[in-house]
Amino acid sequence: MGSTSRERGPDANRDVQLVAIVGATGTGKSALSLDLAELLAERGMAAEIVNADAMQLYRGMDIGTAKLPEAERRGIPHHLLDVIDPRDETSVADYQADARAAIDDILKRGALPILVGGSGLYVSSVLWDFRFPGTDPDIRARLEAELLESGPGMLSRRLALLDPAAAAAIGPHNGRRIVRALEVVELTGEPFGTGLPDESSLWKPTSIVGVRTERAELVPRLDERVARMWRGGIVDEAAGLEQHGIGVTAARAIGYAQALAQLHGEATEAEAIEASAVLTRRYARRQVGWFGRYPARWVESDAPDRATTALELVLTHA
Predict the structure, then answer these.
(1) What would the pLDDT profile of 102-129 be if each residue is shown by its tens digit?
(2) CATH of region 18-130+206-214+294-315
(3) What ranges in 208-297 are assigned the alpha helix state H?
(4) 250 in helix, strand or coil?
(5) CATH match for 137-188 among 1.10.20.140, 3.40.50.300, 3.90.1170.20, 1.20.1250.20
(6) Distances 230 to 218, 226, 233, 256 between C-alpha atoms, Å
């Protein structure tokens, strides 16, 4: 699985071995990571960025994930972007192994890895010593059949009885994660475990910088982001993905599912945009709750000095 609790990387003289930039969608994490990397470079510290957005792992899913084009990455190396075919499925355990390997490689080059993204479980799987239970194909098939037949609501209610914390964290609409939680509960007889391990189990000496925006400012920003996705051609992008072949996870991503519904005549453009906006706002609320439990130090997304503040937080990390 890689290194364990509080283990230092090759540069034992550097207090911080990993920086994580977290926060809700639309708060400007990617831009901050680039600004921070440039400020570090001015001080003679090379930095490289590791993606922690689950959907940005997929090739061809650019518009709906707000993936930075290569020309806008300012020459800073990025890792774990465009590494999965949209037809394929992956897991958090796979991501954990790949991300930790990328981080170790960056450290071996003497650079500082910056983990950036808003997929809470993916980020947590890297930062904490998460271990993932196995799977049972028979249990999984039975639960997925129930999901198809009855929808996520009934399974969510069952999970709420068995593991209230997991049900609250996952929400009633994420059928795939509800199935996985029920599978783990049935396999292990223990709660799925959505909480974070104790702070002392951080994988490496890590500086966590959170980016936040007041909800009154974030909501219109998210709505405009969704509208911009449609103006930018997400429907055409979704059509191309479908023609190539698209797996279950990619097809259910916010924005792409609604664009596909529009393509199939199941929703008007206005309905697709509105549905995507509602789901994006809901997702952002969950992210705020998830990252709010982190031992992070926070910067305001619109603060003119946010990059220098983030740099100070990293350099003064205890």
Answers:
(1) 999 999 999 999 999 999 989 999 999 7
(2) 3.40.50.300
(3) 215-232, 234-244, 248-251, 256-263, 269-291
(4) helix
(5) 1.10.20.140
(6) 19, 7, 5, 10
